[in-house]
Amino acid sequence: MPNFMKGLVIAAASAAALTAAAPVAAQTEITVQRFFGTCDADWGSNTDVAKAVGECGIITSQINKFMADNPDIKVNVNTVEWPGYDQLTAQMASGDPPDVVTIHASVLSDYQQKGLLEPLEAVLASAGVDPASFTAAGREGVTKDGQIFALPFDNHAMLWHINMNYFKQAGLVNADGTPILPKSVDELLAQGKQFKEKVGKPYLVQILANERAAYTRALYIYLMQQKSDFFADPKKIKLNTPEAKNVLQMFKDLYDQDLTTKDQDYPAAVAGFSNGDGGAFLNGTWIIGDLDAQSHAEGNPLSGGGYAVYPYPQLFGGEPGYYSDGHTWAMPKKDRSPEQIAAIGKFMKFMADNNFDWSRTGHLPAMQAVIDSAEFKALPHRSTILSIADIAKPLPAAVQRQFAIQDIIGEEMSSAMTGDKEIDAALTDAEARVNDLLANL
Amino acid sequence: MAQTEVSTAPGQMAATAPRSRQVDAPRWSYLLFVLPFLVFFVLLLVIPLFWGMWLSLTKADLFGPGKFLGIDNYVRLFKDKIFIGAIWNTVYFVILTVPALAVIGLALALVLNRPTRTATVLRAIFFASTVLSVTIVTLIWRVVLIPDMGLMAAIYSWFGAKSPSFLSSAQLAMPSIAVATIWWCIGLPMMLFLAALQQVPREIYEAAALDNANRWRTLWFITLPSIRRTFVLVIIIQIVMQFQLFGQAQLMTQGGPNNASRPIVLYIYDVAFKRFDVGMGAAASEVLFALILVAAMAQYFVSRRRGED
Amino acid sequence: MTDASLPRSANVVGRSTGDRIILIATMLMALVMLLPVLWVIGLSFKMNAEIKLDPNSVFHIPYTLKNYGDVLSGSNVFRWFGNSFIVAIGMTAGVLILSSLAGYGFARLNFPFKNVIFIIVLFGLAVPEQAVIVARHQIFSVLKLHNTYQGLILPGLSASFGVFLMTQYFRAIPREIDEAALLDNASRFKIFWKVLLPLTIPAQATLGIFTFLGAWNDYWWPLISATKKEMFTITTGIASMQMNFAQTEGLGFIMAQAVMAALPTLLVYLFFQKYIVTAVSGSAVR
After folding, report:
1. In this predicted model, what pLDDT tens digit does every residue of A53-99 receive, in sequence order?
2. Does any CB of chain B come closer than 8 Å to the CB of residue A90?
3. Interface test mutation site (partner C, options B35, B131, B215, B231, max chain C beta carbons within 10 A)
4. How far apart are CA A280 and CA A259, in angstroms?
C-alpha cells in the first residue's frame, strides 16, 4: 500500500512537472558529499579528467565533467574531512543527509542496519547500471541482506610501495629486475637488516603516529593469510590467538631493530618516502598514481623509474589471503523529487561508466569490464597487484562498527609496538574492547 | 573564551534577588520583562538538561527513541578503562595547565603593572592569543610540533638533533597540548591579576615605602595577600575551563596515542557521535557535569566568603 | 585599561638593574610567544614542495604569494567568515536584548516567584555545555534547525551569564533615578528604555564583547550542528581543512588560510583593545 501511494505521488509529481515544464528547464540540485580532500586551487575548474592526477584531482574533475555534461543538474559538493562519518551521522540524525555520499564498504552496514540507506536496485536499474557488471568483491561489499545499498567504485588494499633504487643498492633485486621480497618472517628481518647495512636507512617506511587504520589492515591481511577466522561470530572477535601474536611480534621486532621509520604520521610518512626515508612504504592503493608520477620526474629518490608496488608478501606460509575495503557511493534515505532521484541515477551511471578514470588513482576498479580492459592493464604496476583483485576479501558483511573496531585494534597494536604495553595485554585489551563495543550496539 | 560564563563577578553574586520595597506588590505583568529570556532558558537549557539525564538512563542512538535501561550505562562507564583513563587524563591536564596559568599570569601581571608604553605593548602581545579560535591555535601548534617540517624540528636541527615526535608519544602528547593551551589562555589570568593589582589601595604601598620595606617584602607581605582572593578565583575559573578540554585534544592528537591524551569531553563526543551510543555519551556528560558542579560550588562559596570579610 | 589608570609602578617594582633584567626577560618571553605565529606566517609564503624538504627553508628565499592567491581564488574562507559574522552578531544582539530586559526585571521589578526563578537562572551558570549538548542536538533535529543560522545562534541565548551580569549592573544604579521617573508617571518599560538602559552601556560593551568572541570561537556546537560546507563557521571550516595535510592543498595553503582567518579577529582586537581589556578586567574583579 505505501508503495502504491508512493507511486501515485511520484506519478502525480512527474505529471505536474511535465505540464509545468517551462521553456528554460530549472536545474535539479543534488548534494554530493565526499572525502578525498579539497584541491580547488589546482583542479577546481578542470573538466578534462584525463589530465588530473591523484584521488582529489580526479574526483574533483570527474564531478566537474558530470556537471558540464548535464547542464540541467546542479551538484553541490560537500567535502568532508576523511572519513567524514561524524558529520554524516549528525546529518542523518538531523534528517538532512546528502543525496549521494562516499561510504566505505566496511561502514555501510552501520547505516544500513539502522534503515538509513535507500536500497539502490531500482535507481540503478532505471539509470541503466547492472549490478552484474560489478566485480565480485565490489558486489559483495555493497550487498546487505540480499539487497544492493550502494554503487561500489573501487577496491582498495594496503601494499608495499618500493623504492627500487634503494633495493638495488641493497642487493635485493632479482636478475629480471623485480625486487626480492621476503617469504617468511625470518627472511623479512634478515633482508631488513641487509637493507639497513647497505643503504643506511630503515627498510620500511610506516605510518606509526596517530594512525590506526594501517596497523589494523596489516593485521587483517596477515590473519587472513594464516586462515585465522577471527570473526567467526560477527558479534565477537577472537584476537588472543597465536596467529595474532605472530603478527604483532613481527611488527614489534621490526620496530625494536630500527628496521622501520618511527613517529611519522600519515602526511609525514608520505613526504618521508618521497624524500627517500626508506625502502618500502606500507600504504594503500591510492598513492600509486602519485608515486608513479614522481618516479618519472627528475631529481628525486624515485627518479629513473625507481618505483614498484607489490602486495604484502606472504610471510606465514599457507594459502594466499588478503584484506580489502572499498569506496562506495550510497544514497541516504530522505524525501526527494523524482527529478532528483533521476539525477542521482545519472550520477551513479556516470561514476560506473567512468570507473576507469578513478582506477588511475591506483585503486582497483569495481567494474569487471574495467579490470578486463586493455586500457586498465596498460596502466603502470597494475600487473603486479592484480592478483589481490581475485583473493581480497572484506570482513564478514555482518560485522558492524568496523571503523570503531579498526581504531581500537590500531590503538592497542600501536602501544604494543612502541613497548607501552605487552603484546598479550594489548591483544587481550583489544579483544575485550571490541567485544564490549559489539555487545552494546 | 567560549566559557565566558565562569568569569563572572562573584563578589557581587547573591543567591537571592534584593528585597523589593513594600510598596512594590508583585505583579504578573512585570514577568514580561523576564519572560523572553526564560523561554530560551527553559527550552534550550532546562529541558535539554533533564532530557540528557533521561537519555543517560536509556539505550539510545541518534536516530530514534531508546529503551529504558536504568543505571546500566553508568555501570559500563565505570568499568570502561578508557573512561577512567579519560578522567585521569583530564585531571592530569588540569594539573599541568592550571598552576602554570596562575603562576605565569601572576608573574606577568606583576611585571607589566606599570604605566609605560613597553608594558602596554607587552600586555597586548600576551593577551592577543586569547582572541584566536581553538582551530587556529591548534593549527599553529601542529605546525610547530610536526616532525620533520615543524618549527621544533628546525630548532632541533640547528643543534644537530632530531626533535621528538611530540604529538605521537604517549609521554609528550598531553604536555604538548598543555603548552598550546597555556599559550592560548595566558591572557585572561594576567588581565584578572592586573585588575586586582589596581584595586590594592595605594596608601598601603605608601605606608610600606615609609617603613622602608624592601621590594620583595612589599610583594610578599602586602601585594600577594591583597590579591589572595583573585588568586583563588583564577584557579577555580581555570579548573572549570580546563576541565572542558576538547578542541585542542581533538584537533592535535585525536586523543592518541592509544588514548593517552583523551579527555572526558572527547570521550563523550566519540561515544555519542562516532559509536552512536547516545545513552552512554549522556551518562558520561552527567559525570562531567557533577565534577564541574563541585568546582562551581567552590567558586560560589569562595565568593560568598569574600562578602563576609 | 589606560596607562593613566595604572598606579605608579615605582611602588611595586623600582627602576633598578634587577627590574631591567626582569623586563628584558619578559620581552624575550613575548618573543617566544610570537614565534609560533611568525612561523605560521613564514610557512604561508613558502611553496609546498620546499617545506616538505627542509623546515629551515622558511628562513631564506624564495618566498611566494601563490598560497594567498589560491586562497583568494578558490577557497571557502570568505563564506565561512560571513557565516561566523552573522552568527556572532545575531547571538550578541539576542543576548544583549534578552539579558537587559531580564536584568532590569530581576533588579527592579517584583513579580510572583521572582526569587525562585532567579535562583534557577543562577543555577544555569553551573551547567556546562557538555551536559546539554547531546539532548540539544536531538531537539534541534526534531525542529529541523541544523544547518541554519538560527540553529547556530539560539543555543547562545539560553546562557545565564548575561542576565546575571545585567542584573548586577542594574542593581548598582541608584534607585533614586528611576523613582524620579516614576513620579513623572513614566511606564516601567519607558523607564527601562529611556532612563536606565543608556546608563548600562559599559556593561553592554562587556557582555557584547564576551558574547561575540564566544560565538566566534565556538567549536563543538557548530561542529555537530552545521555539517554542510556552506554553513561552516570560520572555526569549523578551518578545522575541516587541517586533518589531512598531505592530501589537501598542502601546508603552505592551509597556513595562508589560517592567517587570513585569524587576521580579522586580530585586527578587531587591536582596534578595540582598550575596550576588550576593560571588559575582561572589569567583569571579573570589581
Report:
1. 888 899 999 999 999 999 999 999 988 877 888 889 888 888 889 99
2. yes
3. B131
4. 11
CB-CB under 8 Å, B256 with A210: yes
The reply to whether residue A39 touches residue C70, judged by beta carbons under 8 angstroms, is: no
Confidence grade of residue A429 (pLDDT, cut at 50, 70, 90):
very high
- Please indicate if any CB of chain A lies within 8 Å of the CB of B254: yes
The residue of chain C with its CA nearest to that of A37 is C248
ipTM > 0.90 (yes/no): no
Chain C residues touching B141 at Cβ < 8 A: 36
User: Would the pTM of this model clear 0.90, i.e. be above it?
Assistant: no
Residue B274 has pLDDT above 70, yes or no: yes
CA nearest to A400 within chain B: B275
In the three-class reduction of DSSP (H, G, I as helix; E, B as strand; rest coil), residue A205 is classed as: strand
Q: How far is C9 from chain A (nearest CA, A)?
A: 49
Cβ atoms of residues A31 and A98 within 8 Å: yes
DSSP label of A117 = B
A74: cell is 546542479
Cα of A94 vs its chain's centroid, Å = 27
Decide if C62 contacts C126 (C-beta within 8 A). no
Q: What mean pLDDT is reported for chain A?
A: 88
8-state DSSP, A22: -
B/e letters for A28-55, b = 16+ CB within 10 Å, e = fewer, are bebbbbbbbbbbbbbbeebbebeebbbb
CA nearest to C2, candidates C204, C208, C277 = C277
Kindly write down the DSSP assignment for every residue of C183-195, as one continuous string: HTT--HHHIIIII
For residue B24, what is its C-alpha cell? 512594590
Share of chain C above pLDDT 90, in %: 29
Confidence band (pLDDT; 50, 70, 90) for C48? Answer: confident
Q: Are C124 and B40 in contact (CB under 8 A)?
A: no
CB contact under 8 A, A267 and C246: yes
Q: All 3 cell numbers of residue A274?
A: 618521497
With b meaning 16 or more CB within 10 Å and e meaning fewer, what string describes C148-161?
A: beebbbbbbbbbbb
Model confidence pLDDT, tens digit, residues B134-179: 999 998 998 898 877 788 988 998 898 888 888 888 889 999 999 9
From chain C residues 87-146, the ones with a CB under 8 A of any chain B CB are 97-99, 101-102, 104-107, 109-112, 114-115, 117-122, 124-139
CB distance from C73 to chain A under 8 Å? yes
Q: What are the backbone dihedrals phi and psi of residue A24, each rounded to the nearest 5 degrees, phi first?
A: -95, 110
pLDDT at residue C228, as a whole number:
85
CB pairs under 8 A between A and C: 82
Give A323's DSSP letter: E
DSSP letter string, chain C? --GGGSPPGGGTS-SSHHHHHHHHHHHHHHHHHHHHHHHHHHHHTS-HHHHHH-GGGGGSS---SHHHHHHHHS-SHHHHHHHHHHHHHHHHHHHHHHHHHHHHHHHH---TTHHHHHHHHHHGGG--GGGTHHHHHHHHHHTT-TTSHHHHHGGGGG-SHHHHHHHHHHHHS-HHHHHHHHHTT--HHHIIIIIIGGGGHHHHHHHHHHHHHHHHH--HHHHHH--SGGG--HHHHHHHHSS-TTTTT-HHHHHHHHHHHHHHHHHHHHHHHHHHHHHHHHHH--
Tell me if residue B62 falls in helix, strand or coil. coil
Of the partner residues C35, C105, C281, the one whose CB lies closest to the CB of residue B191: C281
Chain A residues with CB inside 8 Å of C137's CB? 90, 93-94
pLDDT score of A269 more than 90: no
Collect all residues of chain A within an 8 Å Cβ-Cβ radius of residue B80.
436
Q: Which residues of B fall within a CB distance of 8 Å from C85?
A: none
- Element holding B190 (H helix, E strand): helix B187-199
